[in-house]
Amino acid sequence: MKVCPKCKTKNDDGSRVCKQCGAQFSAPSLQEKREKVVGVQKKSPWKLIVMVLSVFVLGGIAYWVIEAKTSSNPTVGSPLVSGGVDYTGQTIRMTDIVAKVEKGRIAIPLSAVKDNNIVRFEYEGKGVQVPLLSYMTLAGRVVTAISMCEPCRSTRFHIQDKTLVCNACYTEWNLETLQGIKGGCMNYPPEVIPNTVENDQILIKEELVVNWKPRV
To answer: What does each C-alpha distance from 120 to 35, 37, 116 come to in angstroms?
Structure first.
């Protein structure tokens, strides 16, 4: 229905003049005819671009949040072997022990780690020599890692209250999460190597140690 702009009389869509006052209607533009045939007005491509970009941005944020949660605590997957440990007011030095290598696995006694809280041992074989450590977290998890503060190349650490401390540069990390607290090497805590516990033995896959490379 076409409405006359002068007298407001309703006319048929095909009318060229108003049936009431005779006013002439303007001819429809080519664009109006096209939109009428198509039935909908063409949408701006920028809306689609913005929508696509928004999906990518939101997806990236979600991935970052998930990744941050899983990577912020490298010790979270370590076996839980006790109800917890309290190191308040204590300074605990490393105890050196000897590891065994059998059937592609490096083995140390779980009891040695429980009794001493933090131990140091070495793997030597297949052309490499790598210092390793194992300690009990406050929550009772047994962690195994490369015993090296890579920037300063120290291979010895000690436990001080709730922190793991490098003996050379005195950088401190949270004992539970290995997040840096203070010092020059905060971004390079001992790199955690996964382990399993079987029959009072802490087991590490030999290939993980053989293939390990310093981060710096």
So the answer is: 78, 81, 10
What's the pTM? Answer: 0.68
DSSP 100-150: EEETTEEEEEHHHHHHHSEEEEEEEETTEEEEEEEEE-TTSBEEEEE--BT
Q: How far apart are CA 164 and CA 182, in angstroms?
A: 11
Q: What pairs with residue 172 in β-bridges?
A: 165, 182
- What is the Cα–Cα distance from 137 to 87, expressed in whole angstroms? 9
Residues 147-184: tens digit of each pLDDT: 999 999 999 999 999 999 999 999 999 999 999 999 99
The DSSP string of 69-81 is: HHHS-TTTTSPB-
**Domain 91-210, architecture per CATH:** 3-layer Sandwich (2.102)
